[in-house]
Amino acid sequence: MPYRDGAKATNCVRLIDTPHRSGYHDNAVNIQFQQCSGRIRVVKKAVIQACLICAGASLIGVGVNLVAPWGIPFVARGRNLPQLPDSALVKGTDPAPSDGHELVSITLQQAKTLFDRDQAVFVDARPEFEYAEGHIPGAINIPFDEVEYYGSAIASLDKHKPLVVYCAGESCDLSIHLGELLAKKGFTAVRVFFGGSVAWQRAGFPFDRGTGG
Hints:
This protein is α/β, with parallel strands linked by helices. Helices cover 47% and strands 8% of the residues. The radius of gyration is 30 Å and the shape is elongated.
């Protein structure tokens, strides 16, 4: 009759505790006990192996994340980025931050100002299929999840011209991750537009459908 391993272990203990009067019963108890002990050893071995595999995979993942140029920072600055002051746009210029910050965030209106003046390159950090469905006009697509394949696109960018990096909106972290990466590569004027494509469309601003820039 089939029963669970837990029940087998319990039966084993019960057999050992049951008074016995014959050699036959002694042998039955010994056999049952050996079977239970064997099963327990197999389970313990399987659990230890699973833990070792998980630990090894975690260490490999951490190592790859540390050495890969597209690795995700363990502590992202997220929404705590300093915001670009409006005064930086008053004179029609958008200089690199003077206080040592590699990244700054910009508002929807600031992004639109840079767009209207053609003073920044817009970079879409979303996957290619999302970019193909629609994007800010003129934006180039550098999907953060596949950034290792876009080295030539990154190399073609001017490191001193403002870059407006965006993704799908406030719930999307791809823009901050790509912004961090670009800053590490020496780009001096990276602006993260957290509102992204969602806020842009809600405002009724121009939005290209399809892959054309």
